[in-house]
Design a protein that fits this description.
With 125 residues, the protein is of the alpha+beta class. The protein has a single domain, classed as Phenylalanyl-tRNA Synthetase, Chain B, domain 1 (2-Layer Sandwich), CATH 3.30.56.110. It contains 4 helices and 2 strands. The relative contact order is 0.23.
């Protein structure tokens, strides 16, 4: 069932959505994809290639993505990892000069309701 839903999802280029990462496992559904639904208030739709600047920025904003949380099966993230970032947080990071690179083929199409495609293209990995 997940596969059929994934194949129906489109990326910001209007093509089938590709996986973002399964190691570490990412996404609202924890299936490696930056798909979303109405329950995802954060809109985890932007597939990013994390860097130290963004990880530090996120930590300073109160969302520590680097520290492992074994009780939740979270390994902690490091530079180079791919991760589904919330579209509003990515836009905020961009406005503060800290946005990480984006994998357009793995960034879900609804992201365009928050971030213009041209801006995403400027940060394409």
């Amino acid at each position: 069932m997940v596969e059929s839903t994934l194949t129906q999802a489109l990326n910001v280029l209007g093509e089938p959505l590709e996986l973002c990462s399964c190691e570490p496992m990412t996404g609202w559904f924890r299936d490696g994809s930056c798909r979303t639904n109405g329950a995802d208030m954060g809109r985890h739709t932007v597939c990013c290639v994390l860097n130290e600047a963004f990880l530090s920025y996120s930590r300073a904003q109160g969302n520590d993505l680097s520290t492992p949380a074994p009780q939740y099966g979270f390994p902690g993230l490091k530079p180079g990892d791919h991760w589904c970032v919330c579209a509003p947080r990515w836009l905020e990071a961009h406005q503060d000069g800290m946005a990480p690179p984006v994998r357009l083929v793995a960034t879900e199409q609804s992201t365009l309701e928050v971030i213009p495609l041209e801006l995403l293209r400027q940060h394409a990995a």
